Amino acid sequence: MKAQIDLEIAPESLPAPRSPREIESICELIWEGEAVKQQYQISLLLCTDEEIRELNRQYRGCDAVTDVLSFETEALPDSSAKEASIHLCDIVIDTNRVFSQKGTRSFKEEFDAVLVHSFLHLLGYDHIKSKDKEQMEEKEEFYKHKIQGVN
Fold first, then answer.
1. Looking at residue 16, which CATH number applies to its domain?
2. Does 83 score more than 70 pLDDT?
3. What does the pLDDT read at residue 38?
4. Do 68 and 60 meet the contact criterion of CB atoms below 8 Å apart?
5. How many structural domains does the chain have?
6. CA distance 123 to 74
7. Whole-angstrom Cα distance, residue 49 to residue 94?
8. Which is deepest, 11, 45, 92, 142, by most CB within 10 Å?
């Protein structure tokens, strides 16, 4: 099942290093690799430090800038299909933060890493406990290598 992606870019943010179709392809690659059967509708917002800090404060009670926030609502019933549901999700990426933390990687490579990280969060992966962190990092590394061919 194909994930639906709505790409919204805030006017004052840095340009997206990937096209909406490339972002969708990365999502599809992960969904296929994780054998996701549910339907997801994902809204992606690329924003600035101030915007993500406000969202982080509002939704997580953390008054700090971060590179990415991932939110998933409870699955909503899909009226057009029996017993199907749609997971409505939001991903917010601070492109300024991604650019500043990239180190020796390109902006696109760091953006891809943050994007993969956020997609994995939507699928239930976490990094709070060390065992979970190891599993998530392994998945991130696996998909990092798989998406190198995405144009």
1. 3.40.390.30
2. no
3. 81
4. no
5. 1
6. 12
7. 6
8. 92
